[in-house]
Structures are given as structure tokens and as C-alpha cells.
Amino acid sequence: MNVYDSHRIGSILKNLGYTPTSSIAQADLVIFNTCHIREKAAEKVFSDLGRLKIIKDERSANGLDTIIGLVGCVVQAEDEEIARRVPFVDFATGPLTYHRLPEILQKVSKDRETTIIDTEFPAESKFDFLPQNTSMGGASFLAIQEGCNNFCTYCIVPYTRGVETSRPINDIISEAKILVAEGSVEINLLGQNVNSFHGIDQSGKERNLAYLLRELAEIDGLKRIRYTTSYPADVDQDLIECHRDLPQLMPYLHLPVQSGSDKILKAMNRRHSRGQYLDIVGKLKDARKDLQFSSDFIVGFPGETDSDFEDTLDLVNKVKFCQAFSFKYSRRAGTPAAIMPNQVAENIKKERLNILQNLLSSHQLSFNKESIGKIMPVLFDIKGRHKGELIGRTPYMQNLHAEIGKDFCNKIVNVKVIEATVNSLSGIVEGK
Ligand code: SAH
Ligand code: SF4
Fold it and tell me: Model pTM?
């Protein structure tokens, strides 16, 4: 979502006459798009800003002005901290208000002394004010839903991205058509809780994600559709059937479970049990045999015992995720879990994370190794480090490297997999 937001911010700035530079020392304007999900991400912003202040002072000594801005969830959650800790920041605006950047920058240029902070939850939808979304290459992001009403007890998102809202179906379809016309063959639909989507159609009727997926699948030239991130309890029968019926829907689903222990899931206020999660995974696999899952895990949630953690390992062994993201529980001020008793000691969190990540990696490696010898359609869209090397993604979201030359960039090409490691595959183009 943040990559997507940064892309949209880039479009606003382009319209204002800015061009990107790869050297910070040359930048007249630097914007940090920030994440508040864990303490580490949030703290990184403040240390990066410290380094930037030195550059700003050096530029100033040479008569050059530098505008520094912050966007994103850190702003929403820590506006007072920003004014106190980094007063040299010129403006700060939340994830729902960055469409106001043109006005904000105008205010900044009139007043170089005050930090302009805009953290109001806006009545308007930013999507109605942003410049047209543009293709990011072969694969593009398209936000269809924002915010979250789930209030998992550890999570800051409902407080920073606000309540759940869905974009109208027509807006999404016309945006998707533009992205395809500009060369995207894959679209990844984004939302914090994307499968709770309930956007209105032309007649004002609320429609679900399955309806939207079927409409998108009608677009000529759109070869791959993905959606991220889904909430397990909101996977309905309609959505399961889309995985059965739509070949464009890629056989990889990110479906965060967080924990394998019912006690912890309850304390997390997740609306699914371990059994329900496994049941949904089973139903999805029945609908599409080759469907693979990735997930998010939190270890060391308050009250997590060795036996709760064992339940998580057991669930991992049952599902055999092809990829996963796992984190130590991080206390976020203002969330219910931050003040729960029985906080888990840092060394235990570290140890559990280590064990979990080793297990997840072993499954990931076995899955990747099973790909060796297979021929897979790969969408290449990133230049690799070696000459002629491109990096792309298989249907199962594995990164694949191949030496095939830039002519294949942003195209789907059949590749024979010859090597596999935990994090990537390499292959040779079929028939080349
Ligand atoms: N909406 C998605 C995920 C959004 S946040 C969902 O419900 O699954 C992305 C991931 O960050 C979460 O899945 C969770 O695993 C992790 N996360 C969120 N808050 C966290 C916290 N306080 N400490 C550690 N990890 C956290
Ligand atoms: Fe956070 Fe996801 Fe839970 Fe919403 S569903 S509160 S975004 S973890």
C-alpha cells in the first residue's frame, strides 16, 4: 500500500513540475512516506530525518532551500512528536490527505517557518482528487478499499487509516482499463482488508469483491489479477468460486493468520479460530488445486505461552505456506494489547521468531525446489544486477531471475526453472 501511495504522490509532484533525482543532495523536496505498524518502522523515520537535516543544512549553506515532508501513518499517529522531535520538517500529512499536497506545498512556500500539519480525517475521498493513476509497468497496483473496522488488539491501522471505505465499481473498472491500455498485464487490487470490499455499482447497489473480480476478468489484455490483503473471516463462498472460475486470478493468496492458538487469536480479537482458518484454506484448495498461501505471523503476543507457540508451528506444518512474513509483537501505544498484562520478554520473542522463521524458510525452500524442471509463465518487470538479467514473478509470486535481455521486460514469458533457493528461482527462457 505504501509503494502504491508513493507512486500516486510521484504523479502529484510530476504535475507540479518536479522531476525525480537519485541523489538526495540534489533534491529541492524530499518526502518520506512512513509506516507505523511496528516500532522499528516508525523509529527509522526519525533517524533518517536526522541524516537529512545535515544535508538540508549543507544545502542551506550553499544558498539552496530544501523542503522536507512526511506522509503516512507515522504522521497520523505521532503529529505531536513530529512537531517536537523534528521541527525542521516543513509539512506532515496523513495517508488519507496526501491529495492535498498541491495546497500544502503552496502554504509551505509562503511560510518557511511553521511545520504545516494536516492529520484531519477528511470527509472527501482522496481518490476523487488525485491525478489519474498510471501504470507501474507490467504489474500495477490499484487501491480499491482503504481503512479497517476490525480492530485487532495489536494493530494501529484502524487508528491511522481510519474506517473501512470502498471505491465505486465503475471508478475501479475505468482505472483498470487505463492501466491495461498503458501496458499492465497484471493488476494487484489493494486494501487493508480487501475482501471486505463493498463498493457500489452504477445503480447504487453494494457489490462484493467476487463481483468486482468477475467484472475485471472481462477486461481484454488483463492477464493476471491478485488482491491483497485478505481477512480470513471475510472469505465468502462467492470469492472461493472466483478462484475456481477465473483463470486470471493467480494461484497465490496472502491470507494472514497471525497465530495458530485459539486463545491468542481470541485475545487478538481476530474473528476466526484456528479451525476456521484451516477450513477456509481447505475450501480454497478444493476450488483451485494449485492455490498456494502466504501469511503474516506475530510471535510473542501478550500471554503467548510455549504451548500457544507450538500451536502456531503446528498450523504452519499443516498449511505449508509458500511464503510468509513474521514479526515480533510490537507494542503500539493506544492499542488494547499494549496495556495487556503478561507481555512476553524480548529474548523469548526473539527465540520464537527464529524458530518460526527457520520452519517457514524450510517450507518455502521445499516449495521452490518443487518448481525445478517446470515451465512457468513469468512476468518480468525488474532489471537484475547482471547485464541482460531480468527479475519477474511466477504465478505463485516467486521471484525468478533469468538472463533474457530487456526486450522481455513487462512481458509474460514461459521459463524453465533450473535452480531454486529460499528466496528466488532462476530459469531459462523456453525456445530461446
Ligand atoms: N490487514 C492485514 C494486515 C495489515 S498489517 C491483516 O489483517 O492481516 C500487516 C501485518 O503487520 C499484520 O498482518 C501483522 O502480522 C503485522 N502487525 C500489525 N501490527 C503489529 C504489531 N503491533 N506488532 C507486530 N506485528 C504487527
Ligand atoms: Fe490491522 Fe489487519 Fe487487524 Fe485491520 S484486520 S486491525 S489492518 S491486522
Answer: 0.95
